[in-house]
Specification:
InterPro entries: Znf_SWIM
Structural class: alpha+beta
Keywords: Metal-binding, Zinc, Zinc-finger
Number of strands: 5
Helix content: 40-55%
Protein name: Zinc finger SWIM domain-containing protein 7 isoform X1
Order of helices and strands: HHHEEEEHHEH
Oligomer: single chain
Strand content: 15-25%
Largest sheet: 5 strands, mixed
GO molecular function: zinc ion binding
Strand order of the largest sheet: 4-3-2-1-5
Number of domains: 1
Distance between the termini: 33 Å
GO cellular component, one term: Shu complex
Radius of gyration: 15 Å
Mean pLDDT: 93
Low-confidence stretches: none
């Protein structure tokens, strides 16, 4: 298996290419599928169903993503795509076991941002701080 650092470097290059063209080619998706497997498929479903919102705070410009899960409960997870997600899978598969590079919510947020397919929500810095205080 490739090292996580090498895999993340490849993924970053692909995300940059997708973002610059605002479209994901079959080649991009093949590479991402190789890196992320079934989590990519799940993430694309989330994006296709409009399950990603980008919350941007003013005046700081800080942002995070709210990503809806696929379960019947439709839970919403706070996601920092490159670093953290509040879902169980992030802690279990990514942090504890190291079996995945990231969870499907992180991938969904990255994909949605790269192709511009997300709902934009503007909040105050205070509102964002309140959201984060509930973590």
């Amino acid at each position: 298996m490739a090292s996580p650092v090498a895999s993340i470097t490849v993924a970053e290059a692909v995300w940059d290419q997708i973002k610059s063209s605002r479209a994901a080619s079959d080649d991009h998706l093949s590479i991402l599928h190789f890196l992320f497997g079934k989590n990519l498929e799940r993430a694309t479903r989330i994006v296709d169903q409009g399950g990603v919102r980008k919350v941007s705070a003013s005046p700081s410009g800080r942002s995070l993503f709210l990503v809806i899960g696929e379960s019947r409960r439709k839970e919403e997870y706070i996601c920092f795509p490159e670093h953290h997600c509040t879902c169980y899978s992030f802690f279990y598969d990514v942090v504890n076991r190291g079996e995945q590079l990231c969870c499907k919510h992180q991938i969904a947020a990255r994909l949605a941002e790269a192709v511009g397919q997300f709902e934009e929500v503007e909040v105050s810095d205070e509102q964002l701080a309140m959201m984060l205080s509930k973590l």
